Batch of 3 targets.
Target 1
Amino acid sequence: MSNEGLLVIISAPSGVGKTSLCKEVLKFFPDLRHSVSYTTRAPRPGEKDGLDYQFVSEEKFQEMIDGGMFAEWAEIHGNRYGTAANALKEYLRSGNEVILDLDGQGARQIREEFPNSIYVYILPPSWKELEKRLRSRRTDSNEDIKRRLENAKEELQYAEHYDYIVINDAFNVAVSTLRSIIVAEKCRRKRVLKQVEALFNLSHAG
Ligand code: 5GP
């Protein structure tokens, strides 16, 4: 496993600020890629196809499920979301680092196939703040906000299964915490062993 890339799974209830956090953290790691998911959800204003998501029809998504093309998929807030298997496996096999933004169901499915992945859960500082953030986003309808808040309560139960928990109160602190987690994980012996062997001409480092 030492030459397999690092896979970081990030989950959070909707509205916590996970997308902004991931975008900021990605700037620090030139080799870290954000895997673009497929979704049947309609694009929000400003979202770009192929960049934020691959926006597809229900029919296309179903075809992909039937063709076994997803590493995981889930139905969330009435829409479907999924991670394409081939691109992810190929990317990791060539030693690259990938960040996946998944809900709790998707994370559980991925853990079975990629047991070495790292699980980070992002929490809001309070329920009140979560509601405030969801409302200030101004991209979801009232009904959608209500549904996302209700789902957040269920979704939070997954947090206990994660390796790390980050509370996104002050944004910059959360960014540096997440960044530190990734740095530490990149330094794990099993991930740098090959490099150490090559650098110091060792046959059995560690
Ligand atoms: P949003 O509609 O706010 O962009 O995302 C809603 C939820 O879908 C978030 O919790 C996000 O983590 C999750 N999500 C996004 N992409 C995927 C995916 O490919 N698979 C799964 N299981 N969840 C996803």
Target 2
Amino acid sequence: MSTSHHRVLIIGSGPAGLTAAIYTARASLQPLIIEGEPSSTSDQPGGQLMLTTEVENFPGFPEGIMGPELMTRCREQAARFGAQFITEKVTKVDFSARPFKAWVRDTLYTADSVIVSTGAQSLMLGLPEESRLIGHGLSTCATCDGFFFRGQNIVVVGGGDSALEEAQFLTKFAAKVTIIHRRDTLRASKIMQERAFANEKIEFLWNSQVTKLLGDEKVTGIEVASTVDGTTSTLDVTGVFVAIGHKPNTGLFEGILDMESTGYLITKPGSTYTNIEGVFACGDVQDHTYRQAITAAGSGCMAAIDCERWLEAQH
Ligand code: NAP
């Protein structure tokens, strides 16, 4: 078993982790980033932006930038100032004493401080076409991608507040938005329901489940099955927004870091401090409200500054 010690260990490498890496590297803290392993889910290096195509709302890119390129550039920026990367997943942590410990299988990394930026994942329908079509008509973020669906017919899957909020937002762009829900009553709050029912561009397809995404290179339609009698039908749509909830990547920290019942890490208000001194959390792993690349990056910067000041106060 090999071991190495670091001033700052950053777990996760989306916009939050990479911004924390840039800031701590520029503060000469030589952070080690355990960035995750390539996969088709959002806990891979680069996080959820690796599953998007064009990003048009990140300040500084008036022509837009591809999500993966934005993350590659952030990574290069951190490396330029001395950040080191391990392309693996942390398999276990022990924050009960200092130095803090994190393992990648048999390799132990110890650190004076830890920044957790493991992100969150959008829950998906589990259809085999999803990995091929994500970013090509299939999306999990209306704020990010709604603009690309001007004048088109699209669907939103889900019956909670997220689905209704996304649908409402998407009517700014789309010609028609159909909400597909597996039951005949919504889970969303009354006020959101009233707004959706009052919106002429929103239609509902009740008791229905999306069973197939059609299209080779981009979404051209969907197959829908009735949850009552199993009959199937096809809808010609060019956009599918899945809004059936999110799950933070916090399994590693269960019983170690304070979290809400939904799994999101709890940070002290206005800071990135967790319940363990010297362990900080930033990005979507502790944010179920905004979930934007820019807000994640902002909280990554906060974590780096909190961490740097905390380390300084230790000596
Ligand atoms: P949610 O409340 O858990 O709703 C998820 C919805 O997706 C449910 O309607 C559920 O159906 C459906 N669903 C789950 N798995 C599915 C599957 N495999 N196939 C088809 N449908 C599926 O999640 P959320 O809407 O993301 O909201 C999460 C929390 O954030 C809630 O507390 C919500 O109030 C809050 N929120 C608030 C606002 C706001 O106030 N502006 C906005 C967004 C979110 P069933 O109903 O049949 O279970």
Target 3
Amino acid sequence: MSIETQEEKAAIRGLEGVVAADTTISFVDGVHGRLLYQGYDIHDIAEEMTYAETVFLLWRGRLPNLAERDAFRSEIVAEMRLPSQVVEMLRLTPPNSHPMAVLRTAVSMLANFDPDVENLSSEANWRKAKRLLAQVPTIIADLHRIRSGLPVLSPDPNFDVPANFLYMLRGSAPTALERRAMEVLMVLLADHELNASTFTARVIASTLSDMHSAISGALGALKGSLHGGANQRVMEMILDIPDVGTVQDYIAGMLENKKRIMGFGHRVYRTEDPRTRHLRKYSELLCETNNQQELHDIARRVEQTVVEAKGIYPNVDFYSATVQHALGVPPEYFTTVFAAARTAGWIAHIIEQYADNRLIRPTSRYVGETTLTFVPISQRP
Ligand code: COA
């Protein structure tokens, strides 16, 4: 297209509404507030399924039977250990660097120790998929232990990945409620269609780059406060609100100053995000059990106030913040937990992209000058 005909093109800001891939992995119906994983409703999945079962569904496109689910679970847990050099690298990072920055570096470093990294065959990709899914939670738990001056722990083969994550992070076995809450949190965060980080992963995979590169790029996209970085900011806000009675004034003040309320609004959902129902429930149950009822009450009042004032609903980051807080995850690690869960979806999308690949390479509209006269450097003022 010549520069003269550029006028006919128009950039779609934020690619809003652009269909950029065919997928069977998940479906977001923003108008009716529905979310499907491989055709199954998220409410059934959140009520009934385990994390391993959900990942099997996302990756294989069908529900596993009992033996398949348990074998898959054991295969993943067996891959949770990290190369010692990666643990050493965690020790070398400055204590104030953000855990998401460390996680991004650690995944990139893992590539150098993975024997299959440059092998893009289907068999090698599934081996890397299991390793990455298992290693990401370990990186997060180990980083927290190291920064707290505590020894890193080995995974317990009796636990699934979510329970192992809590055990390796905190050093104590989670209760039945905590295990289920962590599992549901990871299930709900596992995939969400073509969000910014998943799109990033697919763009990288479409160049036929390796899986570790695609996940490292996705981590960079998830880190931003308009995407996965919102959950940390939600918790900071909730902890900053003195009590339930001050919520309305606090939120009114933010809205008057044109500040965004983190954990609210969504590009696709025009009604309540279906994941909110489950996260709200576990936030309430966990806060009640931990004598942190006031935090959940503040969150509920924030929700009511924002819905009334702006007509926008909480997104997945809102109650995932109070759930994680009640589970003992420090706020600066919230986005890394989102990443650990979303690694399942990123991998499903990377493999779907490889299976029917075409280089993702959009175009832009040139809006710069076209007739400038060149001036040699010696003659420039
Ligand atoms: N707080 C206050 N106002 C908000 C808002 C929020 N969290 N989210 C959207 N709005 C308002 C905008 O100010 C805008 O109002 P205006 O038309 O009067 O200017 C309107 O709603 C549309 O917002 P826009 O930014 O165009 O929507 P988007 O589709 O680009 O944004 C998000 C989607 C997620 C980026 C946005 O809702 C947001 O910034 N949320 C907070 C961050 C967050 O929680 N991210 C996690 C997403 S899962």
